[in-house]
């Protein structure tokens, strides 16, 4: 790694904060290097995680290098506390987005940074360097008086209230160096404001008092949310943290759920596999919904169900596999060549080409969501049933076609086994809902299609020579998505074919105790790290097969891939103990929860992703 690359903290050095509207990453060194306001898919206002020189940041750190640093989340919250200690003194910095009842009423989003002296005296340097349009725009910064500053450029505006003596530095931003003594408190409060509303910014007296009130309401909000978990067992801290991360990835206004709050953190340094994950994948969102639903959170299922119906205009033919958080369908993928990328890993991309891909598993995900909804005692009304019928019929029409699969391959489409099994699941669940609710449906036709899909997978998706399921018809490659077949009820966990498939995946896709996604060419340059969710999928399979010793061994290896705050990335390089990919990754946290519950013998609520009372399998 070059000296230039070392300027970038490791991905593991970041903490994640959110108010279910905006997102930010805070480094161990006290710098916000990624922040998107007022939405998680907005252009960044601080973004030097993707270009250290031009991306912008907000740093609070001691001026002396002789300091030690520690950090934590305030228990049962998404509030980050970073402590800086030296022989001269100790200061803590607390970072959070304000959460209160108004968050559900679309109150102005407020990013708060509080500085407090704990011991002695320590000089702290604060630098606010906003950059808009992903680093292309150096905004004009002006002082409004009464501790208020504005940064304006392009179609973005950032308001800052602070009780620190900030100085405007031309072509840079704002800066202040102050000594913080024991008991002294200073604060920053940031909010997004469109430039055309700049003349409406009211002064904010008593900034630190307002920040402290926001802190109290945010602690209360998160703890109230955590205490609503009502599983019949005590969750360990890692699993509770994963649940909070999933909640923090939701977009409150619409019910959308993003895959991750970042774009273009590389799956391998310099390999070009850099994608924008700040959107709502139907697949990942449904995984999130049935995981949170199993932990006692039903609201997220209802909100996302409504989001999908709105975004697809109630038509199966207009379904796509992901949407923007406001339901927008056009997510045109473009590259930003002026950004050097994390550790010079170009290209930096926004938008996602995969939004227009043909991925057949989406039909199964929609019916999974309907099953969660129905099993919770909600009525499937005729309007919703018309939509679901359309989705099932779509699965019946298209199941025999090739697609790009769960991994969104960018080469030629294939007949992926997982995709076809999800079509089977869609039809099977459609039959169950129709029969259970007395709803009209072409049941004979649907059952015939179910039988055809099963026959096709059994004959073409299973390699008799090796005795295992395969990635796609016509090849013998293995794929970790096959570990999901028992979860949807296509095959029992202890079926000999599944036992052999699990053993083969353990043998051929294992890299240092972590699984790759597949062993086939994927049409992309370079390589990638191990995909952490797949290892947790393996843990669940092994646990349900009664192989608990092996399951715990793999679980411990995967759990070590989190950082000190319990956050997981998408991928991991076991050889260098390095996080890779977008961060934090919702799918990894989902899979950790499911694996842990399976190991503890409490996985029944999540085993098939539906209510324990469901009798359709």
Automatic annotation (TrEMBL):
One GO molecular-function entry: hydrolase activity, hydrolyzing O-glycosyl compounds
Any Gene Ontology biological process: carbohydrate metabolic process
One Pfam family of this chain: TREH_N
Annotated ranges, domain GH15-like: 238-595
Source taxon at top rank: Bacteria
Domain Trehalase-like N-terminal: 10-162
InterPro entries: 6-hairpin_glycosidase_sf, 6hp_glycosidase-like_sf, GH15-like, Trehalase-like_N
Protein name in UniProt: GH15 family glucan-1,4-alpha-glucosidase
């Amino acid at each position: 790694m070059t000296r230039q690359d070392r300027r970038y903290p490791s991905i593991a050095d970041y903490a994640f904060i959110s108010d279910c509207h905006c997102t930010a990453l805070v480094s161990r060194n006290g710098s916000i290097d990624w922040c998107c306001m007022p939405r998680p898919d907005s252009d960044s206002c601080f973004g030097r995680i993707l270009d250290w020189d031009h991306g912008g940041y907000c740093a609070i750190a001691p001026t002396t290098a002789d300091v030690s640093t520690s950090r934590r989340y305030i228990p049962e919250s998404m509030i980050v506390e970073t402590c800086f200690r030296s022989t001269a003194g100790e200061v803590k910095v607390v970072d959070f987005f304000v959460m209160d009842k108004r968050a559900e009423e679309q109150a102005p989003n407020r990013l708060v940074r509080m500085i407090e002296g704990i011991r002695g005296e320590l000089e702290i340097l604060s630098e606010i360097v906003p950059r808009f349009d992903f680093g292309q725009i150096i905004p004009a910064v002006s002082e409004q008086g009464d501790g208020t500053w504005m940064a304006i450029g392009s179609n973005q505006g950032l308001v800052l209230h602070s009780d620190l003596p900030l100085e405007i530095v031309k072509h840079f931003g704002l800066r202040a160096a102050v000594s913080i003594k024991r008991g002294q408190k200073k604060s920053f409060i940031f909010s997004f404001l469109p430039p055309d509303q700049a003349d409406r910014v009211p002064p904010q007296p008593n900034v630190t008092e307002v920040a402290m009130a926001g802190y109290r309401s945010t602690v209360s909000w998160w703890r109230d949310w955590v205490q609503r978990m009502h599983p019949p067992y005590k969750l360990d801290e890692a699993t509770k943290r994963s649940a909070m991360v999933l909640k923090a990835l939701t977009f409150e206004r619409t019910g959308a759920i993003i895959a991750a709050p970042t774009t273009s953190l590389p799956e391998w340094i310099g390999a070009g596999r850099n994608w924008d994950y700040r959107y709502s994948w139907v697949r990942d969102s449904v995984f999130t919904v049935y995981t949170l639903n199993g932990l006692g959170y039903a609201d997220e299922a209802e909100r996302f169900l409504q989001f999908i119906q709105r975004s697809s205009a109630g038509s199966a033919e207009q379904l796509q596999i992901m949407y923007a958080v406001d339901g927008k369908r056009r997510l045109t993928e473009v590259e930003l060549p002026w950004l050097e990328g994390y550790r010079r890993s170009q290209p930096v991309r926004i938008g996602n080409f995969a939004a227009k891909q043909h991925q057949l598993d989406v039909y199964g995900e929609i019916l999974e969501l309907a099953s969660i909804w129905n099993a919770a005692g909600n009525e499937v009304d005729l309007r919703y049933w018309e939509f679901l019928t359309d989705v099932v019929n779509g699965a019946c029409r298209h199941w025999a076609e090739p697609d790009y699969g769960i991994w969104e391959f960018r080469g030629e489409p294939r007949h992926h086994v997982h995709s076809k099994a999800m079509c089977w699941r869609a039809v099977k669940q459609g039959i169950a809902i129709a029969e259970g609710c007395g709803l009209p449906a072409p049941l004979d036709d649907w059952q015939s299609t179910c039988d055809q899909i099963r026959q096709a997978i059994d004959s073409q998706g299973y390699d008799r020579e090796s005795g295992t399921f395969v990635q796609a018809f016509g090849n013998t490659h293995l794929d970790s998505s096959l570990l999901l077949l028992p979860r949807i009820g296509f095959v029992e966990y202890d079926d000999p074919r599944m036992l052999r498939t699990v053993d083969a995946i353990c043998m051929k896709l294992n890299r240092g105790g972590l699984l790759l996604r597949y062993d086939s060419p994927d049409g992309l340059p370079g390589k990638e790290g191990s995909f952490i969710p797949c290892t947790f999928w393996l843990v669940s399979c092994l646990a349900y097969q009664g192989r608990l010793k092996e399951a715990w061994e793999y679980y411990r290896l995967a759990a070590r891939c989190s950082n000190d705050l319990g956050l997981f990335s998408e991928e991991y390089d076991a050889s260098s103990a390095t996080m890779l990919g977008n961060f934090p990754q919702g799918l990894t946290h989902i899979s950790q929860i499911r694996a842990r519950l399976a190991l503890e013998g409490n996985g029944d609520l999540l085993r098939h992703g539906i209510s324990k009372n469901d009798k359709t399998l």
